[in-house]
Task: inverse folding
């Protein structure tokens, strides 16, 4: 059982709510932080949204998401870089200190090529991010997303890429959903922490059986992930930031979001 | 382009066919080997099936599948071991020199416990297998199956477990579907080959997007896996066995199986 000082929720978790309604409800229920998805900023001024979040007593933890750098098409890669530069400007206006990167992959080329283009894209964006005071977090994605969402699929790969890029504002977002299965994950979390590169920690659970590749994440405690084991590992590795609840779930999105928020808070207290 | 000397097909690939019909059609089309799934042996004498396969000019490559060792329940583990001993007897009667192991996992316990129970189960079965002249191949399964199908999810884990078990009749089945995303896979294939532990090589393709966790495998060339890259790696590592086509596909199972077999052969010639 624990208090809510480190509880952050991603806007996508309560997707049926606008960012304004989410902020109001999160604040009222004692949630401490919010990670804003870019779709939640559509037709809004990020600076205004950022002020309203802080006025409600919440902290802006990060902006989700940048990335999707690779493509066999050089023009598409250039457009992806432009979009990441826009995201950096949005993060700065919002007051988000971090952008989470879903790095991307193009199934039309070898994964090694996608990985090289990811490193290239991050390097090309990192200067603007530094000037804006924004960090970039590589989020290793579960290997079931290696075809089209991310060619970075393990903590080891994320650490290797950070070593290669070697910039203090480029680190890793650790999400239990993506790495729980990996026998090397705990060791690589320690490696990541030793390099002071754990920039974020995301939680949810793996439903058994999982019925959809993307939209069937479970509430903490409903699945088979030992979340405290990973929370302990990131904290042992020096991480002191938020525990961010990021759940994509057609099931939960179809339910009453206020009751769902109560369930999230209860699950957080019991299973994180 | 290549001949069919090393083409083996799993009975499950053409699941609508009985093993008798599969043997007849595979042989007529020049397929060289067959891997028999245990469900195809239901209500049949394995020795008789084995003879009919050899009489048709096909080689029995392996029996699929043993494994599923872990459980939080000790009685269930004992039953699983019994079932594996039965599978060994079936393989011996069939004349299959190899059993492929889908090792299992119990989401109700830590993966480390499941892994320990897998090693324990294999060790307990290996003596009977040796006496029967049957090898056992650990098949690392894609991490999306870590919840309930296998706690061994990378070539590295499979190699580590073989090191731990350290018996000459326990090795690895390399399946491109499970390992294609892994940046360590090629190095671990070399490690596996150096230990003379590559016992099987399975091919199919990863559909983009994949629509089902289990039953949406693609025909070689339809997806994003560079199959020749992996075939080259196992052959460089000393493997001289069959290339086994193992496809679970509700789509292909719903089509005419004779036409499908022609497509498999064409895809094998062009993309393996």
Result:
């Amino acid at each position: 059982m624990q208090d809510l000082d480190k509880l952050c929720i991603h806007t996508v978790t309560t997707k049926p709510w606008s960012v304004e309604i989410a902020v109001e409800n999160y604040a009222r229920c004692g949630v401490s932080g919010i990670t804003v998805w870019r779709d939640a900023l559509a037709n809004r001024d990020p600076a205004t949204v950022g002020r309203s979040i802080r006025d409600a007593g919440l902290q802006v933890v990060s902006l989700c998401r940048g990335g999707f750098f690779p493509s066999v098409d050089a023009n598409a890669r250039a457009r992806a870089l432009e979009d990441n530069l826009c995201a950096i400007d949005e993060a700065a206006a919002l007051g988000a200190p971090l952008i989470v990167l879903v790095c991307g992959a193009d199934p039309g080329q070898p994964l090694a090529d996608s990985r090289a283009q990811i490193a290239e894209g991050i390097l090309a964006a990192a200067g603007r991010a530094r000037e804006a005071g924004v960090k970039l977090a590589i989020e290793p994605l579960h290997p079931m997303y290696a075809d089209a969402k991310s060619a970075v699929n393990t903590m080891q790969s994320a650490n290797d890429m950070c070593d290669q890029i070697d910039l203090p504002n480029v680190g890793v977002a650790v999400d239990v959903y993506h790495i729980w299965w990996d026998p090397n994950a705990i060791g690589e979390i320690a490696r990541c922490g030793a390099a002071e590169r754990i920039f974020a920690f995301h939680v949810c659970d793996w439903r058994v059986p999982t019925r959809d590749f993307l939209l069937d994440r479970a509430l903490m405690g409903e699945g088979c992930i030992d979340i405290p084991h990973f929370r302990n590992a990131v904290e042992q590795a020096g991480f002191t930031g938020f525990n961010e609840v990021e759940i994509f779930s057609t099931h939960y999105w179809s339910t009453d979001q206020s009751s769902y928020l109560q369930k999230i808070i209860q699950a957080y207290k019991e299973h994180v």
Summary: The longest strand of chain B covers residues 59-67. The mean pLDDT of chain B is 98.
